[in-house]
Amino acid sequence: MTHVRMLAAALLAVLAAAPAVAQENFYAGKSLNLIAGFPPGGGVDGEMRVVSRHFARFIPGNPTIVAKNMPGAGGIVLGNHLYNVAEKDGLTVGMPGRSGFLLSNVVKEKGVNFDLAKFDYVGGAGSTNSILWLRAQTGVDTVADIKNSKREIVLGAWSQRSQNAIVPKVLQKYEGWPFKVVHGYPGTNEVMIAIERGEIDGLYSHEGSIANTRPDLIAGGKLKAVFQTFEDMPNVPIMSEFITNPKEKALLALLNAPSQVGLPLMAPPGIPKDRLDVLRASYAKMVVDKDYREEAEKRGLPVGRAMSGPQLQRLIAENLSSVQEDVLQEYLSYMDDKAK
Fold this sequence. Notes:
This protein is an alpha/beta fold. The chain has helices at about 1-10, 10-15, 20-25, 45-55, 75-85, 100, 145-150, 165-175, 190-195, 205-210, 215-220, 245-260, 275-285, 290-300, 310-320, 325-335; strands at about 30-35, 65-70, 90-95, 120-125, 130-135, 155, 180-185, 200-205, 225-230, 265, 305-310. Helix 4 packs antiparallel against helix 14 (about 290-300) and helix 8 packs antiparallel against helix 12 (about 245-260).
């Protein structure tokens, strides 16, 4: 897969930064606590369990991985524990969660006692590119075609709060594009059926949503990628290339960042640098390992595109640690929420 090769190249710097063997031997004979921020049975717990079975193979010294759960408040309980309670010795790491947790410093909630940008990020799995897919029969193949379209382009979405509903509405407002969003579809399969029937024209969605359910629509040329969130598919423009309004840019960055981040594995802030380097280098090796990826994919977990710890640190600091108040208020307005 192209993105796996790209990942391997991108992580070379992490692997090159691995510390000396004497420092790596810290983990020999130790136990490494790996904690999920959700109860057993869900996707976060599932990914944690798969990592717990593979991670030690790549950590010099092969520590014992102790899998645990610390559910509560959508990952916030674990986030508070990692930030304020856990020892900063490199022997505790956690997966608090995805979107809700990752937006916890932006959409303020009671009980959040951590700074998202200050965790030591080890790496993350499941980063996904978001793409606007349109039926080939619409004749709308490019961004220019959207701008010049004389008719509505109808897109399907899960709910009015979902990313695939809000992003097109933002583009409609700021770019004047003739999008109409129809939400209420239970899932991707129902949207695909509506597209095949000609009831709607397409959807804005994670790359895996279609690839995992109806890859035939892509392979057969019935769906075309018009633009993408970040560079992955060849000859498909990137959203940031045609967005110029600063507020629109900030809003779209907020909306798309959790999908790009995926499911991060993090340590308490301030663990010794040599131990963080070991964990990052070991994770980078694991996420391109054939056995790890096969098990994760078999279990339907979001392997997607992995990200290195430094990449996550930068992305979260830039887009998810805080946003301007007017951007936050507009984000909440699309969710039909009132700012607190």
